[in-house]
User: Fold these one by one.
Assistant:
Number 1:
Amino acid sequence: NMFNADVPCHLMFENMKPIPEAQNNIVAKALLINADYFWFVEEDMFFPGNTLVTMLNAIQKLNCDGVIVDYPVGDHWSTICRKDNKIMWFGFGCTLIKKEVFEKIPYPWFETDRSVRITDTKHLKYQIDKKTPFKYGGHDILFGLKCRELDLKFAEVTEIKAGQFRMVEYGKLGYNNGVHNIMKLENVEKQQN
């Protein structure tokens, strides 16, 4: 059971909206019900049943603005990028953030109209490219940089191991056995440091 019976939880979904509109809409809805914490879970994630309780305990124990469960993307890369042992940005597959973060960051919280170009991988130097929007995602990277500008503190919950389901091949339409071929991507093997 991932929910503690003593803690009221409201499940909210945002479907059929593009990035970042979906993320901005769900945050606006959650602010209206005055939730204390916002737990972001993307539809392609898998993690243990005790994840939310573990994350709530961690955010309170560490007294930070948000906690992140890392998971692999691409060729087993971490979604968390660190520089000088500080988290610069992170994926939103499984992230718990205090409400106050969204009160400190002005709307829109999530954006994709510009991109981040790494100019020095050894020292993690980057530039914001205001002319080139992100093709896919990027809302999480820009959000992380907004948090860094405000010196907000995020921590990784290392005791939770999560993974991502990945589409390998779409099933054929018009066939009785038209199921998609999906694989589980597990184990982070490469860091974005």
Number 2:
Amino acid sequence: MTIFNIRIVRLLVLVLGIALMTLVAPVSAGLLVSSDVFNVVGEYHPTTGAYLGPLTPSVNGVGQLGVKLNAAGDRMLVGHFNGGVDEFDANTGAFIKTYNPGSSVGTQWAGLYAPTGGVYLSSWATNDVREYDAVTGAFIRVVTAITSPSDMRIGPNGNLYIGSYGGGFVMEVDATSGALINQWSQPGGGQSRTNDIDFLPSGEILVTAMGTNKVFRYDTSYNLLGFFAGTGWGNTHGIEVSPIDGNIYVVDGISSQVHAFDPVTFTEIDSAFLNPGPGGKIVDLAFRVPEPATLGLLLSGMMLIRRRSSRKA
């Protein structure tokens, strides 16, 4: 290899290194918490709970509800009681667009980045989950009908799980076609006010119930295993199993706090994780973490170029 070609290869390594910092470095770990009172997503340290400041206020939406991030952790969807689902840059808080905006669209509890490449919205006005184009924001189709859908989650089996706030049940559907796979009721039925869903590494299903103020546990066959609850809470909302420490974090609207639980014993570790507390009602939370696949791909590319350069030099 000539000196000129060696310099070209080294330049490519430098450019790839800059691309690595540009694409990966901005995605830092964080804990994002929504509030239907402040209408501002706040950011907290994901392991200490220390308050880092406001990430972004809502733009067209009013009364924040569900918060969901894409796989890369760099885009965020925020549902609302009205005004549509706002989309933001999850690192800077910069506004991107609003899905299904308007003053009469009613509650759209959550947005979800779908396996189809579109965005799913849970709509109370139409009692269904609908898909929108992720680029243009245009309506595409109705995915599935469901009474007053609350939060949604793609399960470890690849299916879509949707809570029904008014119906008090969880519906499992094919994440692409929307075809019904299963449906089961929460203890208390419609009075349970099913809110949010998450999964433990074992596949165990965790479902929050705002009406009974419990987190119910189900096995992969939907059998009820038990429940757990937090200290001094009264409106159990969002739930998230931390990808950082594995603990279970649950938002409560009455104590205005995030409560932490052990993922094996389900005992309460911390009844006031957020420090300082928000001082007003909060609804949902999401852990922002870099996507491991992106980092691994870029690092592999850099190592390959370096090996080739050293062999040919």
